[in-house]
Amino acid sequence: MTDKDTQRIAALEAELASLRAEMQDFSYTVSHDLRASLRHILSYAQLVQEDAGPLLPEETQGFLHTITDSARHMGVLMDGLMELTKLGTAELHTAPLPMLPLVRDVVSELQLQFPQRQIEWLLPTALPSVLADASMLRRALLAVLDNAVKFTAHQPNAQISILAEPASAGEMANVDYPENAMIRLTVQDNGAGFNPAMAAKLFHPFARLHTGKQFAGIGMGLALTRKIVERLHGQVQATGVMDGGCTVTITLPSADRPRPAS
Question: How far is residue 208's CA from residue 227's CA, in Å, rounded to a whole number?
């Protein structure tokens, strides 16, 4: 390594440290200053409801309910933004990780969370191992599978399938891996799907392709998934058909091949 390379690496490390410091400042502002103001809005609106609510016209009471509902929703949005921010700077502990126990654990959690749902889970008997951070990958899988559960809610015969197979390097854009060094994990459901023309919006924070009356949520799950997968040197894609289901594909480095240099 030349002196020029060493200087370039040092400059990049300094830039990264500066960006992390900026993100910490941003996180503090969101979690402390903005949330304090939000608490004041919610608290005083509730006080007005309690003290003067019965005396106010019905229309004005509706205004107050809108204020409190919007304030609570803003708090949820802040939580999602904070989680996304933390993912970008969280320390990774990457190691060979068997996917089958992880997938089964996430599916079991969702079955306990939604005991009233009758879902046919199609799980493989074996899955390959990937090179990943166990906690991070679990969060990504939980977000993807939770979406599958959510968007099959109106399907009387809900079905969610999971499979994995080797992926070629040609499928991966801007990722320096040798051939057959990646694993493609596919989650497919037969739920509401989405308009394929809107696919590019799916992985942006707070992007929603369905109304809140149709399906709950703030549109953060796939944005979190993309942030995690990209930090794990992988990629994520989604395809769908309106009322014809959705397929999410996560491609990650195989545990059988070394990770590329960061």
Answer: 17
Domain that holds residue 24: 3-89
Contact 122, 157 (CB under 8 A): no
Same domain, 47 and 80: yes
Number of domains, the chain? 2
pTM of the entire predicted model? 0.71
In a shared domain, residues 128 and 154: yes
d(CA 51, CA 92): 50
Q: Is the residue at 258 inside a domain?
A: no
DSSP code of 31? I
Rounded to an integer, what distance in angstroms lies between the CA atom of residue 169 and that of residue 100? 23
Query: What is the pLDDT, as a whole number, of residue 103?
Result: 96
Query: In this structure, is the dihedral angle defined by the CA atoms of residues 65, 66, 68 and 69, taken in order, positive or negative?
Result: positive
Backbone phi and psi for residue 183, each to the nearest 5 degrees, phi listed first: -120, 135
Residues 126 and 219 both lie in one domain: yes
Those residues with Cβ within 8 angstroms of residue 127's Cβ, 6 or more apart along the chain or in another chain: 98, 99, 100, 103, 164, 185
pLDDT digits (tens, 9 = 90+) for 53-90: 788 888 888 888 888 888 887 877 777 777 777 776 67
- Side chain identity, residue 31: S
Amino acid at 247: T
Distances (CA, A) of 85 to 89, 136, 224: 7, 14, 9
* Dist. CA 229–CA 94, nearest whole Å: 12
- H or E element, residue 56: none
Where b means 16+ CB within 10 Å and e means fewer, 168-201 reads: eeeebeebebeeebbbbbebbbbbbbbeeeeeee
